[in-house]
């Protein structure tokens, strides 16, 4: 469960016309919502505040107003505990994959829960096999395709068995084939998934949709209705 209690983000930015002077800029207006649904999609234009909202859920970004509780934990005070139970997948897997080979990268995710190196390597192989990447266990990460990298990033996160998974546009950089693979994987998970996406078909399959515009939640509810509202909003732009 994700609880947002008047949670918002305001930052100080430099005034370009007056060096040395700053002013407050609202990145995300205060949001109050309790998200209990298994699949929640967040849609909106680039720069609307979607990613900021996603990062609040596991404490990658802290609210400057209100508070956020995930799985009953306050992200500002219990960030480490939150991140041990909440996985996060970025748009670009290269921002997430840090080890030389696929096997080593998954093994790195297991270092807290599997202290023995041999067991960790064996479990990493099992994880890769589950995601159809077993033959790439010793492959250099840089040699994988974009889709394989995103699948590897997901494998590393899911190896820790998170209770909540936050995905920030995980299919944006993928071709149609790999988009389907990742979409099907996300749809099959037991964990609660908060999906920030431009894929309106994926948003329609969610249990609940939030539409973000100009740093505000302008719709919260039925996926079909939310997507229709967003499409109308985008069509009205010059």
Report on this model:
With 238 residues, the chain is an alpha/beta fold. It folds into 2 domains: 2-85 and 162-235, Rossmann fold (3-Layer(aba) Sandwich); 96-161. The mean pLDDT is 87. It has helices spanning 50-57, 79-83, 102-109, 117-130, 146-158, 176-188, 200-204, 223-235; strands spanning 2-14, 22-35, 39-44, 65-70, 73-74, 86-89, 164-168, 192-196, 208-213, 216-221. It has 8 helices and 10 strands. The N and C termini lie far apart (38 Å).
Question: Could you give the topology of this structure?
Answer:
Blueprint: E1 2-14, E2 22-35, E3 39-44, H1 50-57, E4 65-70, E5 73-74, H2 79-83, E6 86-89, H3 102-109, H4 117-130, H5 146-158, E7 164-168, H6 176-188, E8 192-196, H7 200-204, E9 208-213, E10 216-221, H8 223-235
Parallel strand pairs: 3-8, 3-9, 6-7, 7-8
Antiparallel strand pairs: 1-2, 1-4, 4-5, 9-10
Helix pairs in contact: 3-4, 3-5, 5-6
């Amino acid at each position: 469960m994700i609880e947002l209690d008047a949670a918002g983000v305001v930052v100080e930015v430099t005034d370009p016309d007056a060096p040395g002077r700053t002013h407050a800029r609202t990145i995300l207006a205060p949001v109050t919502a309790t998200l209990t649904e298994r699949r929640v999609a967040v849609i909106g234009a680039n720069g609307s505040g979607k990613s900021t909202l996603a990062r609040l859920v596991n404490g990658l970004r802290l609210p400057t107003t209100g508070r956020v509780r995930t799985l009953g934990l306050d992200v500002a005070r219990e960030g480490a505990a939150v991140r041990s139970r909440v996985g996060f997948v970025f748009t670009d897997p290269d921002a997430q994959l840090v080890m030389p080979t696929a096997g080593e990268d998954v093994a790195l995710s297991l270092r807290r829960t599997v202290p023995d190196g041999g067991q960790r390597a064996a479990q990493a192989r099992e994880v890769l096999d589950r995601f159809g990447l077993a033959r790439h266990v010793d492959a250099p990460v840089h040699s994988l395709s974009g889709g394989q990298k995103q699948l590897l990033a997901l494998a590393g996160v899911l190896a820790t068995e998170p209770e909540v998974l936050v995905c920030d546009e995980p299919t944006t950089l993928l071709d149609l084939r790999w988009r389907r693979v990742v979409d099907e994987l996300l749809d099959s998970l037991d964990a609660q998934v908060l999906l920030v996406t431009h894929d309106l078909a994926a948003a329609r399959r969610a249990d609940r949709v939030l539409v973000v515009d100009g740093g505000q939640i302008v719709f919260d509810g039925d996926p079909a209705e939310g997507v229709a509202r967003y499409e109308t909003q985008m069509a009205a732009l010059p």
